[in-house]
């Protein structure tokens, strides 16, 4: 019987390099290693099945979708708040938050982090408005959100945001008249703040795969306000029909330069 540290080293090496040692020097299970102070007995552990846990981003479910049209943008989400995929806690949990009249943010992921991040964003936006005496534009907000997520990358917020709104461009013509144009703006993030800007649609949440497929099939470029509402509603409802941990109603915001329209939709209730 081998004792002390030498026995442990020989045992570990004999497992990885059995060809180096004769059979008589290879310890067998169960075996004991005696030292001057105590005895350690090692037994072979039984084989157990591994239970794979779901992603923390899927724990509460939910999805968000943004889509652009001609001088209009829309953002939509489901209203379900679940726990561990199977339990429905609330059927009126919105994931869309207003920053100002031209900027909206959608947050999916862990519900507690959604609320914490939104409170931080609201604090930063209000502080900016007090200091600068103007509203935060969408470029500034999108970069600020990216910086916040990246700054917390070692202890991240478990959220996947999207930002939709209008990029306002001011101009002066040859006669000195001022005018502004409203350009639709869409961007999506991962949980450490990497942006993905686009000019058609963005999705995030547990229903992303279904939403991508529906949007690629139904999206039409440069739709008017009513057409955009119909398209984003059909994409969202069709995706929710194919996902069991999202649904229980939905809400849609359609933004134009001069008004905001909010509508609620009926969806799967199982």
UniProtKB/TrEMBL annotation:
> Which family would the database say this protein is a member of?
Belongs to the peptidase T1B family.
Which processes are annotated in GO (biological process)? proteasome-mediated ubiquitin-dependent protein catabolic process
Subcellular localization: Cytoplasm; Nucleus
Protein's UniProt keywords contain ATP-binding: no
Q: Relate the assembly described in the record.
A: Component of the proteasome complex.
This chain's source organism reads Plasmodium ovale wallikeri
InterPro entries (UniProt xref): Ntn_hydrolases_N (IPR029055), Proteasome_beta_3 (IPR033811), Proteasome_bsu_CS (IPR016050), Proteasome_sua/b (IPR001353), Proteasome_suB-type (IPR023333)
Q: Name one GO cellular component term.
A: nucleus
Query: Which key words are in the record?
Result: Cytoplasm, Nucleus, Proteasome
- Per the record, the major location class is cytoplasm
Q: What is this protein called?
A: Proteasome subunit beta
PANTHER family in the cross-refs: METALLOPROTEASE TLDD, PROTEASOME SUBUNIT BETA TYPE-3
Q: What does this protein do?
A: Component of the proteasome, a multicatalytic proteinase complex which is characterized by its ability to cleave peptides with Arg, Phe, Tyr, Leu, and Glu adjacent to the leaving group at neutral or slightly basic pH. The proteasome has an ATP-dependent proteolytic activity.
């Amino acid at each position: 019987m081998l004792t002390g540290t030498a026995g442990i080293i020989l045992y570990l090496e004999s497992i990885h390099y059995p060809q180096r040692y004769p059979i008589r020097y290879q310890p067998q299970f169960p075996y004991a290693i005696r030292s001057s102070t105590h005895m350690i007995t090692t037994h072979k552990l039984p084989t157990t099945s591994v239970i794979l846990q779901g992603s923390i981003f899927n724990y509460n479910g939910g999805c968000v979708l943004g889509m652009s049209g001609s001088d209009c943008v829309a953002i939509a989400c489901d209203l379900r708040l679940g726990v561990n995929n199977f339990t429905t806690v609330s059927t009126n949990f919105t994931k869309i938050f207003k920053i100002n009249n031209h900027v909206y943010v959608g947050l999916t992921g862990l519900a507690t982090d959604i609320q914490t991040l939104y409170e931080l964003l609201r604090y930063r936006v209000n502080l900016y408005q007090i200091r600068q005496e103007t509203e935060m534009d969408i470029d500034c907000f999108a970069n600020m959100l990216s910086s916040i997520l990246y700054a917390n990358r070692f202890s991240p917020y478990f959220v996947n945001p999207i930002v939709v709104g209008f990029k306002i461009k001011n101009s002066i013509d040859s006669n000195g008249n001022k005018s502004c144009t409203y350009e639709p703006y869409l961007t999506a993030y991962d949980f450490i703040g990497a942006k993905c800007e686009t000019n058609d649609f963005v999705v995030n949440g547990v229903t992303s795969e279904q939403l991508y497929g529906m949007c690629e099939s139904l999206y039409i470029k440069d739709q008017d306000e009513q057409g955009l509402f119909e398209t984003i509603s059909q994409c969202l409802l069709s995706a929710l029909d194919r996902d069991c941990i999202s649904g229980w109603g939905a809400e849609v915001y359609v933004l134009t330069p001069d008004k905001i329209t909010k509508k609620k939709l009926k969806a799967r209730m199982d």
